[in-house]
Amino acid sequence: MKLPVSTEWVLHCASSLAQLDAGSSASTAQLAEYYDLPAAYLAKQLKALVKAGVLAATTGPRGGFRLARPAAEITLLQIVEAVDGASAPYECREIRRQGRGALPDEECRRTCVLAEKMADAHQAWRDSLTGVTLADILATLTPSAMARTRLRLTGTA
Amino acid sequence: MKLPVSTEWVLHCASSLAQLDAGSSASTAQLAEYYDLPAAYLAKQLKALVKAGVLAATTGPRGGFRLARPAAEITLLQIVEAVDGASAPYECREIRRQGRGALPDEECRRTCVLAEKMADAHQAWRDSLTGVTLADILATLTPSAMARTRLRLTGTA
């Protein structure tokens, strides 16, 4: 059970963009240099964040990315699922219905209790990440750390 | 983020073995026929359950697998991690330390707050699966369903 390596990228990029002033944005190239990441692959991930409504893309010579919504309204779950999707890690292929032990249809109307417990665990994971917003992450940073982020990312503190 | 397909197999096999009478066991061939699964690949998964202390292997002509411990002492987490390992899905490669935005060492003594929140979510998933034992699963089955399992799996009700 592995999340893509780019999960770390998007969590950090979104957190950095959350530190910019309103109206400010950062380009793919700026974000790639800031974290020393491959720009082409990062661009794909940023596009996924736009599609998920986490980031907004601005066009033009000073175009780039900014948060699409206030930091307090963007959860870590939204960022993670933007690049990995929302499908559950456990796949129930209904083996209870096959082989010598196959259960009759009438006993399979309810979800298998094992699939149910696995879904509960996935929901616990999702709830945990829903409980953390980008505003919560920013609250752990000092004003000077945020000013440094702005300066190094966009050249303006 | 995907669990191996065999996760469903081991959850069901362990649940079925939990329904056998004390002293009784089922072979790889019996379990493979019961669920119509490929025996060679299933054997590998059952071996992983033995290694994890979930199942015990008995040898001899009537040899096979049985629970290594009481059903109330075997959690779904132990079964799932027996085949998928216990490593967390989120991998922190410390990108905060690289590129133009690289943080100084003294600011990286604590775990990155994003890695921390991802670890919290994984722990919530683990806690959820630790909270369910094979005894809980058996409690959802009727005595006649369990007698049928025994009959079809080992030929003795």
Fill in the keyword field for this structure.
157 residues, mainly alpha, 49% helix
What is the annotated CATH architecture of one domain in chain A?
Orthogonal Bundle
Number of E-type strands of chain A = 2
Query: Which fold name fills CATH's third level, the topology of one domain in chain A?
Result: Arc Repressor Mutant, subunit A
Backbone shape of chain A:
elongated
Percentage of residues in DSSP E strands of chain A: 5-15%
Description:
The structure is a homodimer of 157-residue chains. With 157 residues, chain A is mostly helical. The first copy, chain A, has a domain at 5-86 and 133-154: Winged helix-like DNA-binding domain superfamily/Winged helix DNA-binding domain (Arc Repressor Mutant, subunit A, Orthogonal Bundle). The first copy, chain A, is built from seven helices and two strands; from the N terminus they run αααββαααα. Chain A has helices at 6-17, 28-35, 39-51, 76-84, 113-130, 134-138, 143-154; strands at 55-58, 64-67. In chain A, strands 1-2 form a two-stranded antiparallel ribbon. In chain A, helix 1 crosses helix 4 and helix 2 crosses helix 3. The longest helix of chain A has 18 residues, at 113-130. Chain A starts with 5 loop residues before the first helix and ends with a helix. The mean pLDDT of chain A is 95.
Q: What's the structural blueprint in terms of helices and strands?
A:
2 copies of one chain form a homodimer.
Chain A: H1 6-17, H2 28-35, H3 39-51, E1 55-58, E2 64-67, H4 76-84, H5 113-130, H6 134-138, H7 143-154
Antiparallel strand pairs in A: 1-2
Helix pairs in contact in A: 1-4, 2-3
